[in-house]
Amino acid sequence: MDQAKELRNLINNVQNTNLKNTLNSRVITISSGKGGVGKSSFSVNLAIYLASLKKRVLIIDADFGLANIEVLLGIRPKYNFYHMLKGEKNISEIVVDTNYGIKFISGGNGLKELSNVNSTEIKYFIEQFEYLDKIADIIIVDTGAGISPNVTNFLMASDENIIVTTPEPTSFTDAYTLIKIIKEQNRAIDKLNIVINKADDKYEADRIFTKISHVCNKFLGINIKNLGYIPSDIALIKAIKQQKPAILSFPNSDFAMAIKSIGNRLINEEQVIDNSGIKNFMQKLMSVFNK
Ligand SMILES: Nc1ncnc2c1ncn2[C@@H]1O[C@H](COP(=O)(O)OP(=O)(O)OP(=O)(O)O)[C@@H](O)[C@H]1O
Ligand SMILES: [Mg+2]
Q1: Is 165 in the pocket of ligand 1 (CB under 6 A)?
Q2: How far is CA 80 from CA 30, 98, 259, 279, 280, in A?
Q3: 5, 53, 58, 244: which has the fewest Cβ within 10 Å?
Q4: pLDDT at 145 > cutoff 90
Q5: Mean model confidence pLDDT for the chain
Q6: Which atom belonging to ligand 1 lies closest to the Cα atom of 258?
Q7: How remote is the CA of residue 35 from the centroid of ligand 1, in Å?
Q8: Which pLDDT score is estimated for 19?
Q9: pTM
Q10: What is residue 231's predicted lDDT score, i.e. its pLDDT?
Q11: pLDDT exceeds cutoff 90 at 68
Q12: Span 128-132, mean pLDDT?
């Protein structure tokens, strides 16, 4: 048996004790085709809003580039996935509390190593995630932008996806390309939602959604859902200057209102969601990274 196949078997055989259990975390992956469309701002503010509704929320920064979320949350974790993957820390030691009622894990360099692990590391790594299913109701995974495996693998592993785009043609075309690439790999993509950020108004956002939805349906046979839009709002720029997330520093801004309405929509869906949890997510992720 070749090594890759052996690893795949091992990944699939890590005992899955919590599949389809209502106590699993709800894992929502945030991604985009083009960079700089507002994923991290959306992830952080949405997480804080969901926490205000008494949900236990954790953000995972799975961006391989800049530590966006850390800047937005004003934290600098000492340890990240890398330390866990190497067995130096266990998962509870890499979870960081923030001042905003949400928890955080930095991917750091660890996520780059996911396709570079040996069988002992894989087993340890996947099993560690059971802990997160116990401490979080909702896990938001903020990924990088683009169509590299670093992004597409996360989308394929996730039960629930939100792709963020702006109304700019380069942004929504790249969002479509991202969806198309996954389709071309013959991979299923579950629950695909779109959020249109930095829109002028609802009409512009609806027009862009209709465009993306039409091509996804016609050329890929995929139905996507409109989760809502977020206007361009100066509150976000002011919030960065105040070093406090906009949902807290400007709770009545158009931006905050939009985040709340998207958050409420997600919560309203809760009864119909069948969460397979973060451990299952990691299992699928390791499996696509090592295919
Ligand atoms: N609705 C909005 N109104 C005004 N500015 C916004 C809005 N959303 C995001 N921004 C600004 O756009 C910039 C990019 O946002 P952010 O870093 O969240 O994007 P990103 O998609 O995470 O980027 P990357 O691809 O680099 O990870 C930031 O300066 C942010 O403040
Ligand atoms: Mg980001």
Answers
A1: no
A2: 19, 15, 28, 17, 20
A3: 5
A4: no
A5: 88
A6: 1
A7: 9
A8: 47
A9: 0.92
A10: 98
A11: no
A12: 92
User: Could you give the CA distance from residue 239 to residue 223 in angstroms, rounded to a whole number?
Assistant: 35
Query: Which numbered ligand comes closest to the C-alpha of 247?
Result: 1
Whether the Cβ atoms of residue 76 and residue 33 lie closer than 8 Å to each other: no
Fold exhibited by the domain 3-12+27-66+73-289: Rossmann fold (3.40.50)
Structural contact between residues 208 and 200, judged by C-beta atoms closer than 8 angstroms: no
> What confidence score (pLDDT) does residue 18 get?
46
Please list, in sequence order, all residues whose beta carbon lies within 8 angstroms of the beta carbon of residue 134, skipping any fewer than 6 positions away.
23
Residue found under tokens 């809003």: 49
Amino acid identity, position 138: I
- Angle at 186 (CA atoms; ends 107, 14), nearest 5 degrees: 50
- Asked whether 61 lines ligand 1 (CB < 6 A), one says no
Alpha-carbon span 32 to 195, nearest angstrom: 10
Determine if ligand 1 sits within 6 Å of the CB of residue 63.
yes
How confident is the model over 19-55, as pLDDT tens digits? 445 589 999 999 999 999 999 999 999 999 999 999 9
How far is the centre of ligand 1, averaged over its atoms, from the C-alpha of 165 (Å)? 11
What ligand has the least distance to the C-alpha of 31?
1
38 Cβ closer than 6 Å to some ligand 1 atom: yes
- Characterize the bridge pairing of strands 225-231 and 192-199: parallel
Domain extents in the chain: 3-12+27-66+73-289
Residue 246 in contact with ligand 1 by CB distance below 6 A? no
